[in-house]
Design goal:
The protein is α/β, with parallel strands linked by helices and about 290 residues long. The chain has a single domain, classed as TIM Barrel (Alpha-Beta Barrel). The protein contains nine helices and eight strands. An eight-stranded parallel sheet has the order 1-2-3-4-5-6-7-8.
């Protein structure tokens, strides 16, 4: 299809692989068990029309945030960073102050869906950390499975002025072709105007080897109707994406989904929403 606008990839990862830091990579994820660095990403996006990205943490340690910010500082292609900060620590504010001094830090994330406690997000110490983010103008990325949506509603309602960005449309059960109750809970979540959503991570929730765009389309239609183009943004989840296909295949699928929308709506989903939600520089010289 004709490309009406260039694109910001609002969700990708980078890592210099080692066995100790990436224990979440299961045995079936052997394709991920190598380094994926910025030159690899730039090769993957070369023909895609992507002219900027948001790099998202993959390790829960402050050295990860430091590393991503250093990469972003040396490469304008990375427009922003979603890092990790110990939000439950008594000195969370000190960490936030240190990292937020770097203008490339745009948000923080905790890997909620890997916590043994499904209600971790409702902990008092975690919410104290979340309550500090607004003063630093930082978004919070919500990484959950579908089953976490009920408590997520309670969580976000504690922070009505905080910008939240839902990763991977809350990982519905696409492979099993199950829409409810995910659909209804997404519709309820989207009533909160301070919540944005990333159209990302969908292929890896489907059958990795045999998914088709038609398997994903019902889930895309739900979030489009719920959030609207002004609160949806494109994300690749590369290189996790490579478990289920290439960068080109995913971005072509995304563009086929938005092809019937107006040019302004496509502009929002390809770049405008990411710029607004993460406070990215709309125009900057890219290396």
């Amino acid at each position: 299809m004709e490309l009406l606008t260039s694109t910001i990839d609002a969700h990708h990862h980078l890592w210099d692989f080692n066995e100790q830091d990436y224990v979440w990579m299961s045995g079936e994820m052997t394709v991920l068990r190598r380094s994926f660095l910025l030159p690899d990403l730039q090769t993957a996006v070369r023909e895609s029309g992507v002219d900027g990205t948001v790099a998202v943490q993959a390790r829960q340690m402050t050295v990860e945030t430091e590393w991503l910010l250093d990469l972003a500082g040396r490469n304008d292609f990375i427009r922003g960073v979603v890092g990790w900060v110990p939000l439950t620590a008594p000195d969370a504010g000190t960490h936030l102050e240190r990292f937020a001094a770097d203008s490339k830090l745009k948000g923080v994330r905790h890997v909620l869906h890997d916590e043994p406690d499904d209600f971790y997000m409702l902990r008092d110490d975690f919410n104290r950390g979340i309550s500090l983010l607004q003063s630093f103008q930082l978004a919070y990325d919500i990484l959950i499975f579908e089953r976490h949506l009920p408590q997520t509603l309670e969580f976000v309602d504690r922070h009505p002025a905080q910008v939240f960005i839902l990763d991977h449309i809350a990982k519905p059960r696409i492979k099993a072709r199950v829409l409810s109750p995910w659909r209804e809970r997404i519709q309820e979540l989207a009533k909160r105007e301070n919540i944005y959503c990333k159209v990302s991570g969908m292929a890896t929730e489907a059958d990795w080897k045999s998914w088709t765009p038609s398997d994903l389309r019902p889930y895309f239609d739900v979030v489009l109707a719920a959030f609207g183009p002004k609160r949806l943004m494109f994300g690749s989840d590369w290189p996790v994406l490579t478990l289920a296909g290439s960068y080109e295949t995913w971005i072509d699928t995304f563009r086929s989904f938005i092809g019937e929308l107006s040019e302004d709506e496509q502009q929002c989903m390809c770049r405008g929403t990411a710029i607004a939600a993460y406070r990215l520089a709309a125009d900057q010289g890219l290396k």
